[in-house]
Amino acid sequence: MKKLVLLFLFFLGIHAFSQTAAAAKEVFEKIKKESQIDGNDKTIYNLLDEFYDKNLQAENDEMTPETIERIQKLASDSTTKNIHILILFLMYQQHISQTAAVGKKPNPDFQIATMKLLEDETKSVYGKIPAIVYIYKYEALDSGEKKDEAKAVAIQGLKEYPDSVPLKVYSYMTTKDESIKNDLIKNHPNHWMVKQFEIK
User: Which of 134, 152, 172, 194 sits CB 3.0–4.6 Å from 180 for a disulfide?
Assistant: First the structure.
């Protein structure tokens, strides 16, 4: 398992210099080989749900220091089951954060490839795709100017998660469905995404 920690450090090194789809896949495959994969252990799945609930579904960003600490602890513990999923998720988060911090646009090829890997892996391990993956996949495709694919992801995600405010926002933005707009205005007027996209 010491190898896993070294691979993670290797990933950080590659990631700092090369945020490409090929690099992401290569690092992910190496980490996956060292990971303990267990579909019955929902720790990482639940963590992705918690991240979604506190960052995206909540009216305001409610990420607590405890959640951040738990993410860091799980990511640094080589015995964490399904750690490859968490590291892939963190690769995506790091890319978005780093590019935003320097005022650059994210690399859409990297985003799309990473989300495809995350979608396939969560479905393979858990039999279900978390809501946050639908949201990030929509954003990745939208960033890559793949508008029709992004629209399909938002619609499918909303079928799976009908109460998801971010998926309602993205579905409305791509379909202009008045019933979704009315629901957002009536039931979620204070949600940060409704305000950000000025849905009135």
Answer: 172
